[in-house]
Specification:
- The protein is α/β, with parallel strands linked by helices and 270 residues long.
- The protein folds into two domains: 16-112, Rossmann fold (3-Layer(aba) Sandwich), CATH 3.40.50; 154-269, Rossmann fold (3-Layer(aba) Sandwich).
- Helix content is 51%, strand content 14%.
- It has a five-stranded parallel sheet with strand order 3-2-1-4-5, sandwiched between helices.
């Protein structure tokens, strides 16, 4: 009997060690990656995040970075197993973290929905939730396919997607945000433009059928009113100027990406 109890204890102890060895203490320096952590239900592993990660802040996670600065000392004090970030984090901060022996995983800015999904699966591996990550990706790919079937045949609306005001900034090809336009069955009027800056005159000349404004708050509303004031602009004449949820569109997970495509399809066609 004592031997059986001993075996049970050893088995239980080994299970605990196995779970603990898979548990990772994570610091996220990117809002989009923090959102993915929560989608993967791995927030208990998250110990620090940026001041823009509202979910993490509401959960009482440590703030370790602002828009301009990364608090390397604060990160070190949290003893994370891994720091996850994007290529937008200053190289000097990444080097400082690596020199202190901190494991840093840098995710490139995704160029497509496919890359968003690939990074999500990779983050699933890092957090020990690879199976959940794959399940979510498969579900969202199926949902996207179903949404695209709602697009009327032979409909190719020309779309301008605006990201900034001063200067005026457009979504350009070969970016994940361009996928919003193409997957919603549209044509990007910024095709052929290599940088995002664009003049208002160029937009008026290309005369899009639809304008999607990815700006928050009062600025977005003012831009909508501004575009609506132009005579001869097809998007204005057809009441096809819309505000898009900036948080979902600019910091996507597989789920929020498809949510944005769904929003655009509803705006454009229905």
């Amino acid at each position: 009997m004592k031997y059986r109890l001993y075996l049970i204890f050893v088995f239980f102890f080994c299970c605990v060690l196995t779970v603990n060895s898979q548990t990772k203490s994570i610091v996220s320096l990117a809002h989009s990656l923090t959102k993915m952590i929560y989608l993967l239900e791995a927030q208990d592993n998250l110990v620090g995040s940026t001041g823009f990660c509202e979910q993490a802040i509401d959960d009482g996670k440590h703030v370790v970075a602002s828009q301009m600065n990364v608090n390397v000392e604060k990160i070190l004090s949290l003893s994370p197993n891994v720091v996850i970030t994007t290529d937008l984090t200053p190289a000097r901060d990444l080097e400082a973290l690596k020199k202190l022996g901190i494991n840093v995983k840098v995710f490139d800015t995704p160029a497509s929905f496919r890359e968003i999904c690939e990074q999500f699966v990779l983050l699933g591996k890092i957090t020990g939730r690879e199976e959940l990550a794959a399940s979510i990706v498969n579900r969202e790919k199926s949902r996207l396919e179903s949404l695209r079937k709602q697009i009327p045949e032979n409909s190719k609306p020309e779309i301008f997607m605006q990201l900034g005001v001063k200067p005026l900034f457009a979504v350009i090809p070969h970016t994940f945000m361009d996928d919003y336009i193409t997957m919603a069955g549209g044509i990007n009027i910024a095709a052929g433009i290599n940088i995002g800056t664009i003049t208002r005159e160029t937009v008026l000349v290309r005369n899009p059928d639809v304008i999607l404004i990815v700006l928050m708050g009062l600025v977005g509303k003012e831009e909508k009113q501004n575009w609506e004031s132009y005579t001869g602009l097809k998007a204005a004449e057809n009441n096809k100027i819309f505000l898009i949820d900036a948080d979902n569109a600019c910091s996507p997970t597989p789920v929020s990406f498809v949510d944005t495509v769904e929003e655009i399809i509803k705006f454009v066609y229905f």
